[in-house]
Amino acid sequence: MTKPRQQDAPPVVEHVSDDTLRQFVGYHVKRAMNVIQGDLAKTLRPFDLRMVTYSALVLIVDNPGLRQSQLATAMDVERPNLVVIIDELERRDLILREKVPTDRRAYALMPTLAGRQLCDKAIAAVKAHEARLLAGLAPPEIKEVVRALSQIELRGSEE
Amino acid sequence: MTKPRQQDAPPVVEHVSDDTLRQFVGYHVKRAMNVIQGDLAKTLRPFDLRMVTYSALVLIVDNPGLRQSQLATAMDVERPNLVVIIDELERRDLILREKVPTDRRAYALMPTLAGRQLCDKAIAAVKAHEARLLAGLAPPEIKEVVRALSQIELRGSEE
DNA sequence: TATAATAGTTATAATTCATAACTATTAGAG
DNA sequence: CTCTAATAGTTATGAATTATAACTATTATA
């Protein structure tokens, strides 16, 4: 005999079980990602940055002179969608589109001083917030996680 | 002296470095998530399911009788957005909205036989695909990753 | 009984993501 | 060397996802 049910009424669910989904690593990744994304958004708000503008800025600071198409590929964003991101960063004078004399179709993306400074501050803030999220995890554990996630990422690119 | 640059031209970036972002676990989670999400979408396409409809179906099969608001909370989806998801599953006769005699505002979500069957098949397919993504990772490593991700998830909910 | 709260819905806006087509320019085949 | 194809960036646009306000019906509570 199963749970007693009055008449023909549907069972009342007191606690929702997601055990089946929990067997999938992907589910855990998704839920962790939700938390991380929410935390990141909150962290970046004071800098008036979103996740995309933040990562674009970091990549430009780290790779001064790169082209928009390179950045789009690195960020896994369609070229048309990158345009507005770059527009926004340029409008705020965090980066600039520098003309490339050897190829007049392309722009070399360069960070400004303000861009580098904001980037540094944002990175520091993100670092602090991430540390709080990862509190309770020992460094070797974290290394292990990163290794595993990289492995998954790799599997994806070799399709 | 740094890299030689002809005249005043911006440096040419041959390889885009994302080392700065790689220091963040969140970045790795995001990139792994992209791969997983793409793989999942491909896996579910033959069943005419998307990630949201799939997880909704699984949760309904595992928790027959649950209410839409419970499901919305479990899935981290706004109630209005869940309506169309449930509509879709119901239209395909995978689930049904059963009237609750004790509360005439609410619907108890129940899977149909077809729903349970499709769910089983989809779960099997996802399991197989995930196994391929995780090939190269030993079971204890996977356990470690899940533990770490759960920890992150937890940190988020205790804000 | 009156008021507040809840379940589900509708309508709608904001945001994100994807696609086609265009201009200007460069590279490559012949 | 010229013609064609390919590339960089852009514009326009649409699809999909996500979020918000307000509504109906019903239940819980003061």
- Oligomer description: homodimer
Question: How does the helix and strand content of chain A classify structurally?
Answer: mainly alpha
CATH topology of the domain at 32-128 in chain A: Arc Repressor Mutant, subunit A
The CA-CA distance between the termini of chain A, in Å, is: 49 Å
Average of pLDDT of chain A? 93
Instruction: Name the chain pair with the biggest interface and residue counts per chain.
Output: A-B, 76 and 76 residues
The level-1 CATH class of the domain at 32-128 in chain A: Mainly Alpha
Instruction: Please give the radius of gyration of chain A in angstroms.
Output: 22 Å
CATH architecture designation of the domain at 32-128 in chain A: Orthogonal Bundle
Q: What is the 3D form of chain A? A: elongated
**What is the helix tally of chain A?**
7
